[in-house]
Design a protein that fits this description.
It is built from 15 helices and 11 strands. The chain has helices at residues 28-33, 43-54, 111-130, 150-154, 157-167, 174-200, 227-232, 287-290, 307-314, 349-354, 367-370, 388-392, 395-405, 412-428, 439-443, and strands spanning 8-12, 59-66, 86-87, 105-106, 141-144, 219-220, 223-224, 274-277, 296-300, 318-321, 371-374.
Length: 449
């Protein structure tokens, strides 16, 4: 990334399939949720990576995706007396409840969800930001927010009843679930604010009462994955919360009577900026109702020319561009879901290079200021350590030049000789990079064009 002047690594560190991040406050998340004890990211490792990246001009940006894309790691709530943290977990047939398996969405009716989120936010802020640059303000936090499946919440009696009692919305229409989603987002952002306050003021806690210490033994690859052992082996410099829970009534967790929350939870423009993916919550006709433009940044995973980009910028929102049909580097490798072999088309470097992040925003006076930058996305459903690098490079280099040079970069035809040379230089320096032309063409410059 430093070779290409890319300065932010957005790390989607958890998802419904796995929770590999080892939270010092809630080690049960990775104990329940990681693929195996060996496939985790300890807090010490995250802090080392953050410092390493920053020394090269790259900032790590954590994403804790919510309320969708959660399943693995969240199943310990009932045993701890916290009730169900996730609804429709691993439900089948999955297509009725989520975009990809295993299904799961956070339970917006359970107040303990927000206390768990606050603890996780606290640990991530400390590991990703405070450890790398102590005392400096955290610039952004990515809260995901994409691909919420309203059918999942609609399948939960607890969620539907809460929506009726607490929000006064008993009809279960789409707009009612969008309101519930907005309510969740506001409370989740408040949890982030509490986490940030706890970091800045020693002695403060990100939760109103300590969360429970659940000791669970998870076997994998012949090794125990004990929460208690992880706590004993934890980095002594890591901050954790006390291990005694004081806030849940005695008795069956299913019978906990959660207090009604205020129907309108407001989040103002103060505090750390929160990034969210485009979704039904960011639609032009509802976004201003639920998301303060001074607080939220919208990451656009839209096709080129989608009018929503102009709508959001014209309303004053800051945006990050991730054009779906140009800068999604995982596209073009078939389909892994269901029985279809079709999938998105491959986007070669030429398409990535010619994608203008300001296209469609002509005439808007704030466009150059509100477009904070762009991001090439390399999702991991069909990529692991054996192939992720060649899918990422050298196409990300094309994205980098476009972002730094803008329209002055011209078109890909003017850049192709330089681009080939740059790709070869990256490969020689040890970065596995996909070939873009035959070696003969490289040795006989200009004879293949």
């Amino acid at each position: 990334m430093a070779q290409n002047k890319l300065n932010v690594l957005h790390w989607h560190i958890t998802d419904s399939q796995s929770f590999p991040y080892e939270s010092t406050s809630l080690p049960q998340m990775s104990a329940y949720g990681a693929f195996s004890p060996r496939q985790t990211y300890p807090s010490r490792t995250v802090r080392e990576l953050s410092r390493f990246a920053l020394s090269r001009g790259v900032r790590l940006l954590p994403e804790l995706d919510a309320p969708a894309h959660v399943a693995a790691g969240w199943g310990w709530g009932r045993a701890a007396g916290l009730g169900e943290l996730v609804v429709c977990a691993a439900q089948q047939p999955w297509a009725r409840y989520c975009i990809e398996p295993p299904c799961g969405q956070l339970n917006p009716a359970n107040p303990n969800v927000y206390r768990v989120l606050a603890a996780l936010f606290h640990d991530m802020l400390k590991d990703f930001y405070d450890a790398a640059a102590p005392g400096s303000p955290a610039p952004y936090f990515h809260m995901g927010g994409d691909e919420v499946h309203l059918g999942c919440w609609n399948s939960s009696r607890e969620v539907v009843d809460y929506m009726s009692r607490a929000l006064g919305r008993p009809k279960r229409r789409k707009e009612d679930f969008i309101a519930l989603w907005g309510h969740f987002q506001a409370r989740a952002t408040q949890a982030l604010d509490r986490a940030q306050q706890a970091l800045s003021q020693p002695g403060e806690s990100a939760t109103d009462a300590p969360l429970p210490d659940v000791d669970v033994e998870v076997e994998g690859n012949g090794q125990g994955n004990s929460v208690r052992r992880r706590r004993e082996d934890a980095d002594p410099d890591a901050t954790t919360f006390p291990s005694t829970f004081l806030g849940v009534p005695d008795g069956d967790a299913d019978n906990v009577d959660y207090p009604l929350e205020d129907r309108a939870v407001k989040v103002d423009g103060e505090g750390m900026p929160v990034i969210l993916w485009t979704s039904e919550l960011t639609a032009a006709n509802v976004v201003e109702k639920y998301l303060d433009k001074n607080r939220y940044v919208i990451q656009l995973w839209l096709r080129a020319g989608d009018p929503l980009a102009r709508d959001l910028v014209s309303k004053g929102y800051r945006v990050i561009v991730s054009t779906k049909d140009a800068w999604y580097l995982d596209h073009g490798f078939g389909n892994w879901k269901g029985n279809s072999t079709s999938g998105y088309g491959y986007h070669p470097w030429q398409v990535a290079y010619d994608n203008d992040p300001l296209a469609g925003l002509e005439g808007l006076p704030g466009a150059t200021r509100q477009v904070l930058g762009g991001e090439a996305a390399m999702w991991g459903e069909q990529a692991d350590q054996s192939g992720a690098s060649t899918k990422t490079w050298p196409r990300s280099a094309a994205v980098a030049e476009r972002l730094w040079s803008g329209s002055a970069a011209g078109t890909w035809t003017a850049a192709r000789i330089r681009f080939v040379r740059h790709r070869d230089r990256m490969a020689r320096l040890g970065t596995p990079s996909e070939a873009v032309q035959p070696e003969w063409c490289t040795q006989h410059e200009g004879q293949c064009y």
